[in-house]
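#data-curation
PF: Archiving a pair of folding outputs for the training set. Convention for this channel: one message per protein, sequence first, structure tokens after, nothing in between. First:
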Amino acid sequence: MTSPLTASTPEVRPEVRWTPRLWGTLLVLCAAMFLDALDVSMVGVALPSIGADLGLSTSTLQWIVSGYILGYGGLLLLGGRTADLLGRRRVFLVALGVFALASLLGGLVDSGPLLIASRFVKGLSAAFTAPAGLSIITTTFPEGPLRNRALSIYTTCAATGFSMGLVLSGLLTEASWRLTMLLPAPIALVALAAGLKLLPHSARERDHRGYDIPGAVLGTAAMLLLVFTVVQAPEAGWAAARTLLSFLAVAVLLTAFVLVERRSPGPLVRLGVLRSGTQVRAQLGAMAFFGSYVGFQFLVTLYMQSLLGWSALHTALAFLPAGALVAVSSTKVGAIVDRFGTPRLIAVGFGLMVAGYALFLGVDLHPVYAVAILPSMLLIGAACALVFPSLNIQATNGVDDHEQGMVSGLLNTSVQVGGAIFLAVVTAVVTAHTPENAGPQAVLDSYRPGLLVVTGIAVAGLLIALTGLRDRPARASVVVARSTTPEAERVPVRD
């Protein structure tokens, strides 16, 4: 029996070189990640136009964003394990096709509920493409410099897509909000056509122990209810009976999920993965990283548009230096990881993030962009360039191929749940400090406690990262997710 923390020599694989076909494979996977980020950032700027055109209330508009988060965050664990069991290529391509159809539907409907439904389906499909795509990379590129470079390029596409989405949404919304919904459809179809030819056929697990249906039901229900409760809590009230009962139900579902997973011969999430400090730090770091950034981006967007009177395009361009810095550094991060290791880069990145957030606390109602805002954007951009690829590398290193989808789903779940929880907390803090009929200065003052919370979340991420510096480096990989199941019980089947 192999311990989850057993040090072992990495599996010897045939030499992998950067052939044109391999670049094409990575490009297809990057396109899906790019679309996920693009879609999230584009819809926010288009919400006022959508509300005016379809006659939707503010609470209904919220669900155009929340519906996507609900489908994405609630089904990631199921998506990751499904990729392992049914085949990563198959799951990725089917989900990408569904994403394209949902994008087309979202741009054509004239009903608020149908638009929200299309957003939920898009989030659901992203919950399958994200872990499947990441696990295709980690099983195609051997652990080490090649995988590090591939993951740095892959994760950079998320930041690039998010930044471009902000700019494109400002331009497209001027013509029609429907263009922001339709744009991902042709890109997804092109990526789907290319993926059919380029993506490698992967071995899928024919699990004689059976599928973990109870675990899948409990895990998915717990994540869906958790995300739903967090999203609704600011509106319903954190101390409201409905909110408290929902959190209690989440706790019950998660407890039942853990009990089922401990006894299941083929669990949805093998809990032994979380015995590794390296893995736990990656998951907690992902929550702190994305949660703090989403909260920061939310407050800064309000500050620029509501208080400074900047247009959507002007606001998007203000964020652009951060995304541009990430895009420019994409080819360098892999080599930096090879030299210094993920724990150091994550710690340095969180330090830069804390500095960027703290620096922004001093803004006023008449800022000079180059002095008051640009330094924070550059620091945060540098932090994103270091932290996000390093977290992905740290979470997937030392994990057996047949569990890469599971770990990828777990990491993406941490990202989405962290974003949902901390954004709701920041929103609640700002709302509590905003007086009625407040003037511009009072509104700005109400933002500062929210910025302090954002900074505190990043500080927590830094402290978590610093604990990883105490680990002694080892030449051999540490296996954090090796199954105890004999190899004879896993029969590879090409999808």
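PF: Second:
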Amino acid sequence: MLVRPGKEKEFSKFFHETAIPLMKRTKGVVQVLPGAARSGSPREFSIVMIWDSLESLKAFVGEDYESPHIDPAEAELVEARSIKHYDLVEL
């Protein structure tokens, strides 16, 4: 996610207090790996979610799971968002 300039602190609060806890308690989410902004890229945040199945992901976001979904609470904070899906590889 790329946060709008000047909204870094506000988004960080939303990210830590709302988004991460929400995703951790979402049915079908096995693991949440949040990435906070760093000094060299203070507007960039990321979140990796491991789901138990594609069906669980679709139940949460709908059939259009390949498009980024922005919560109304964060819409004015986020400038851009991208999403990618991968299949896990067994080690």
